[in-house]
Amino acid sequence: MSERNATASEHNATTPATGAAHAADGADDYAARYGEALLPVFGAPQKVLARGEGVHVWDTEGTQYLDLLAGIAVNTLGHAHPALLAALSKQAETLGHVSNFFASAPQIELAEKLLELSGAPAGSGVFFANSGTEANEAAFKIARRTGRPRILALANSFHGRTMGALALTSKEAYRAPFEPLPGGVEFLEAGDEQALADALAPGDVAAVFAEPIQGEAGVRPLAPEYLRALRRLTREHGTLLILDEVQTGIGRTGHWFAHQAVEGVQPDVMTLAKGLGGGFPIGAVISMGPAVHDLLQPGQHGTTFGGNPLAAAAGLAVLGTLAEDDLLAHVRRVGAGFTRDVLALDHPLVEGVRGAGLLLGVALRAPLAKEVAAEALAAGFIVNAPDPSTLRLAPPLIITEAELATFTAALPGLLEAVSARAAADADPALEGEH
Ligand SMILES: *Cc1c(COP(=O)(O)O)cnc(C)c1O
Fold it and tell me: Which family does this protein fall into (predicted)?
């Protein structure tokens, strides 16, 4: 961080901040220009990427990477998939944007498709947004419209960064700088059925928000029994069960939606985004059944871009390709193979593999995940560390077993390089021995 700032201010001193001067700087000045032109919200980017195809991306230096993160579970079909390109260019040539004063065929078709795939009962409906946080904002407003004051979310939740979604997000470091947040949200330990029953008992809880697998918390699945208890107890108390499938939806776990792996669990509201547009921004809220259908009345919510024909065409291409290429079964098979192969490494640093399908967390026995992710990047693999001891993989769903196996094969070397360095740092005397 401070290194980057130093570079940026040096650059500032010698170069007038004009577009023309920037262009003349040449391609290798991107890091400094990023520091000057973008707000420092994300920290220094790891690389400047220039191009992608299939499961690979290339940076501006021409280095190739196996993309095992897919823009954080977004590039469902990988990069530059022909079906997505064809759908987007055809739609762009036909009709790009219309506002919600008008409807478009792709928007209606995508809504119908989502209702079908989610098994939504008669009287269900879709609201389109542009991102995960916006989908959760809409769900939050739906919850408020029940008239009940309290909302429950789970410890370690992540629901987004806008004020409402942030109120549902448990991480103190994300919340504290922006208080006061919309009120009424309480957090429960995931897995504690008694706490859930106690919290719901007064009958004044509007909704419970939960992620079937807590992705940002380190790929931590809710136990199926707990998910069933969530469904049963919320129904008993007339509380909405709102499942945030922003990260877990759209085939990511080998099911259209992760909750479909657990029989008898259908939410009242489901939110989607990330993988739905295959890289084109889109979010969606599905209200399941007549009881939730009319909680948002005409005029009570809206968005300029939501359900835009381009975004909807992207969504249709993603869902169509997943079905045509039988990718859900593929995701289950490749994910299970990866888990088996990583466990077979029997590496002392690897505690296990969490997750489902191609949303995978390799649990380490030491808080070295950031270092391993950096080592992986240097070796040509993009993964990330959602927590200090978890490596997350969320590759394009088209990845083959052979492609993923190149990472499994490299993993012991990456782990050893990092643990050797950690040992040397802890005991500088060891350094000389290398
Ligand atoms: C990423 C994510 C969000 C927020 O989505 P954005 O598109 O970044 O706003 C919300 N919920 C979950 C579970 C997510 O993984």
Answer: Belongs to the class-III pyridoxal-phosphate-dependent aminotransferase family. ArgD subfamily.
